[in-house]
Amino acid sequence: MVRALVVDDSSVMREILSQILESGGIDVVARASNGYEALEAIEEHDPDVATVDINMPKMGGLELIERVMDERPLPVLVVSSQTERGADVTFEALELGAIDYVTKPSGEVSIDIWSKDQEIIEQLETIARIDEDRLRRAAGPTDAAASDVDASGSFPNDPTLIIGASTGGPQVVERVLRELPSEAGLRILVVQHMTDHYTSRFAQRLDEASEYNVREATDGDRVGPGDAVIAKGGYHLDVVGFPRGTVRVELDGGPKRHNVRPAIDVTMEAAAERVTGNLVGVVMTGMGADGAEGLSSIKAAGGKTIAQDEETSRIFGMPQRAIETGDVDMILPEERIAEGITNAFRGWSA
Questions:
Q1: What is the DSSP letter of 231?
Q2: Is residue 240 in some structural domain?
Q3: Is 290 an active-site residue?
């Protein structure tokens, strides 16, 4: 049985979250109203996992996460509000080592959190299995120097890259985009499992970190050389055409796939069908099976496929399922994914 600590300054939220976890068979061993109480509870009860609110008195969630990752690494699920400020601090929490987040549907104290009960339970059961080495890597510096990716040589015409990621993905996606050479002139589509209110801020962060022009996808958007779009939360990113060397996309509010929207498979399968240039697909850290069928479609269409390796994936679920299909060309650690993408495209021009 997973043993959990619930940290929130609201007694109502502590009670609701505890009820949710216990309804899913998770043992709530302690509750805390601020970071100081949480540190004491961790010392006394040695939980497997914790849910942590960000805005708390005395010691807030960011300081708590930083201290936990430094002193006693523990898988943390952030419970955050659906605001621009909430998105910013959630990304800060992920950079400090938190594994994933769940949003409060309607404000700081939200009984609507019950609508997320299965999501919360599944996330906690999954992240509780992350070992200490992966936790320490997750809490490592995010401003490390980029890998030395060779940008010399020629690249093929019309190169299109589809990246899919879920739990643990934001930091890896940022690293990969930061390291990809602008000289390659890639057209990049990123499908990160992420809720609305967060994808626009995620796109802004990537734009600041990368030499590519990164934006949240809009309906009818056209992605040309040097552009990258992020699938908008709550919509599948459908590839509907490839006119004059640009990838044309539309936002699709249709049924969820793998219980998520946006789904990686939707974008990859559409790209495999409609993109006529050179195509590479990448599936990175995350739980579930999304992306496996999409990579197989890209492979069948003559494209090249990459999966993140087990050692550097926070959650190996999606890459593992992709690898099991037998349609993955390269299995690479986080620090070599940008290099692998670059070499895959360069191979077409050799």
A1: P
A2: yes
A3: yes
In whole angstroms, how far apart are CA 172 and each of 168, 178, 264? 7, 10, 16
Q: Residue 151 domain-assigned?
A: no
Whole-angstrom Cα distance, residue 307 to residue 346?
18
What is the pTM (predicted TM-score) of this model?
0.91
Number of domains the chain is built from: 2
In order, the DSSP letters of 123-168 are HHHHHTT--HHHHHHHTS-SSPPPP-----S---SSEEEEEEE-TT
- Angle separating helix axes 169-179 and 199-209, nearest 10 degrees: 30
What's 20's domain CATH number?
A: 3.40.50.2300
> Cα(78)–Cα(340) distance, rounded to whole angstroms?
32
The kind and range of the H/E element at 221 are: none
Reading phi first (left if > 0) and then psi (alpha if -120 to 50, else beta), residue 234 is in: left
Given this model, what pLDDT does residue 350 score?
A: 47
Q: Do 131 and 163 fall within a single domain? A: no
Other CB atoms within 10 Å distance of the CB of residue 34: 19
Euclidean distance between CA atoms 167 and 142, whole angstroms: 17
Q: Which residue is catalytic, options 193, 197, 236, 258? A: 193
Active-site residue (options: 18, 110, 166, 210): 166
pLDDT tens for residues 118-139?
999 999 999 998 887 778 776 6
Say if CB 28 and CB 61 are below 8 A apart.
no
Domain region containing 327: 159-349
The pLDDT of residue 294: 98
**What tens digit of pLDDT does each residue of 150-190 get?**
766 677 778 999 999 999 999 999 999 999 999 999 999 99
Report yes or no on 148 lying in a domain. no
Cα–Cα distance between 233 and 192 in angstroms, integer? 9
Q: 123 and 220 share a domain?
A: no
Residue 146 lies inside a defined structural domain of this protein: no
The answer to whether residues 35 and 107 belong to one domain is yes
- pLDDT per position as a tens digit, 52-66: 999 899 999 999 999
How crowded is residue 129: how many other Cβ atoms within 10 Å of its Cβ?
A: 12
Average of pLDDT values for 309-331?
Answer: 96
